[in-house]
Amino acid sequence: MAITHATDATFSQEVSEGLVLTDFWATWCGPCKMIAPVLEEIDSEMGDQVKIVKVDVDENQETASKYGIMSIPTLVVMKDGQQVDKVIGYQPKEALEELVKKHL
Description:
The chain is an alpha/beta fold. It has 4 helices and 5 strands.
């Protein structure tokens, strides 16, 4: 499964079913750039269990505001459209895997 880039218009639809790890990020954010390859690894290893959706907070301020995103990267775990967990800041791969696994 490939990483999906969602917009304000498509976000609800993208997170409506199953387990979704949402990365709220921006192009100018250093830690966001560091976490991108980690998310790609998780996607390739756990892609059938979790969908990864990225939301650029500069281009999609409505969605970022709705979820109270104050600092980035913020990773929000959604299950069938509902927020079930959230972590802020760069996370190592192991921490993100544990975050996902506890909601499977």
